[in-house]
Design a protein that fits this description.
By secondary structure, the chain is mostly helical. It is 91% helix and 0% strand. The chain has a single domain, classed as F1FO ATP Synthase. It has two helices and no strands.
Length: 75
């Protein structure tokens, strides 16, 4: 395996692994928020902002993985 192939493979692996965690986290958070809203619909003003903030933090991890993959590929 030459250096270019190793870079391609490691960049693909970085983004693949880096996207699985946040994808699962966002799905679980949204499911739990919908479950909480189903149990207590009046709490929408407390649940929605916290859910959006948590999803933004989880998405940031995926963006970090993407940046690392780009660095691996092009540097």
């Amino acid at each position: 395996m030459d250096l270019a192939t190793a870079r391609q493979f490691s960049a693909a692996l970085a983004i693949a692994i880096g996207a699985i965690g946040p994808g699962l986290a966002i799905g679980i958070m949204a499911a739990k928020a919908m479950e909480a809203l189903g149990r207590n619909p009046e709490a929408v003003d407390a649940i929605r902002p916290n859910m959006i903030l948590a999803i933004a933090f989880a998405e940031a991890i995926a963006i970090y993985a993407f940046v690392v993959a780009l660095i691996i590929k092009f540097v």
